[in-house]
Amino acid sequence: MSDTPVIGVLALQGDVREHLVALATADAVARPVRRPEELAEVDGLVLPGGESTTISKLAVLFGVMEPLRARVRNGLPVYGTCAGMILLADKILDPRSGQETVGGIDMIVRRNAFGRQNESFEAAVDIKGVEGDPVEGVFIRAPWVESVGAAAEVLAEHEGHIVAVRQGNALATSFHPELTGDHRVHRLFADMVRAYRAAESL
Q: In whole angstroms, how far apart are CA 37 and each of 8, 42, 101, 139, 190?
């Protein structure tokens, strides 16, 4: 078995191309995923930033929501950035009408918590498990995590708010590391996928 994992990016809406580039830099085979048959072929999946309500509705429309929930429950490594973090939350504090989540992380998330588009900012974020200097995080209409359950591990905070969380094979950040050229978070996720593949092959 090749050591190179195949990692998909849910390509329904959002900054898909940037994640594909970041994953390729992290020594993964990266491909867009829109349909259940494409989801079935990947070892891990990124849920990109964008508009969480739109992504969830399109996931239902394309028939990928239920298979995705099932694979996440069964241990598929998944990484959500910004809107992707909202999609991985078991609960949203202020959901919009008809908004669904994939779930997978025992956390409560507040949408647009850091402000509107014109209040976007960058900040250095020290992330547990990422060696070296802090990661430069790009926050665009970013959520934050109000609280986490016992199974979830807080990896980073910014100004007292939780902005990175991991639970088992699920990873989520409020910010967009794919927009900075620093791909260490994607490398961390690719390593999670490799460990999952190795365990699956035993």
A: 12, 10, 20, 33, 21
* From 18, 19, 158, 178, active-site residue: 178
Structure tokens that stand for 5 in this block: 């994992």
96 three-class SS: coil
> Is residue 178 annotated as part of the catalytic site, yes or no?
yes
Neighbours of 18 (CB within 10 A): 19
176 is catalytic: yes
Question: pLDDT tens digits for 81-136?
Answer: 999 999 999 999 888 777 899 999 999 999 989 988 778 999 999 999 999 999 99
Question: What is the amino acid identity at position 123?
Answer: A
The per-residue pLDDT for range 73-95, each reduced to its tens digit, is 999 999 999 999 999 999 998 88
